Known about the structure:
It is built from two helices and no strands. By secondary structure, the protein is an all-alpha fold. It has a domain at 36-83. The chain is elongated and about 45 Å long. The mean pLDDT is 78. Residues 6-88 form the DUF8142 domain. This is DUF8142 domain-containing protein. Residues 1-30 are annotated as: Disordered.
Amino acid sequence: xxxxxxxxxxxxxxxxxxxxxxxxxxxxxxxxxxxxxxxxxxxxxxxxxxxxxxxxxxxxxxxxxxxxxxxxxxxxxxxxxxxxxxxx
Length: 88
């Protein structure tokens, strides 16, 4: 008797080590998008914190923040919707 979650095939919510960023579902893949964008967002926010901690005028740090957030949101949308899947 085979159970619905047998050892042969991974469950829907289970991590697949052979394809960690693969999107099997037709919908949005928010987890893949968050994993792809998080390092770049962390680098950008770290840059802003570093500028503020050096004592440079806060205006420069806040001038860098909108492009960092814009690029992160744009990358999140691209990765979560598989926007470029037909072109690769």
